[in-house]
Amino acid sequence: MADTKGKNPRKGVPLDKETADKLDPKRIATSQKPDKQEVAGQDSVYGDWTQCPYCGHVGWTSGLHTDYYIPVRCGACQRVFMA
Length: 83
Ligand SMILES: [Zn+2]
Fold this sequence. Notes:
Strand order of the largest sheet: 2-7-6-3
Radius of gyration: 12 Å
Bound molecules: zinc ion
Number of strands: 7
Largest sheet: 4 strands, mixed
Order of helices and strands: EEHEEEEE
Low-confidence stretches: none
Helix content: under 10%
């Protein structure tokens, strides 16, 4: 996967509702307004802007990973996508 750190918002990938409903809610990150834009300790885990594929909302999301997608709940429309 391309390294999107510090570049344009990481574009979310739509996730069907059935799959989203099966996810553990505690493991879903939330895109929100940034309070602190600090990057987590490990290099591969970081915070960045993500863009909701449903409504286009761009929110700050921490816990993103450079090597794989994580589920993210949109801070605006509350739907879950992968980013
Ligand atoms: Zn949204």
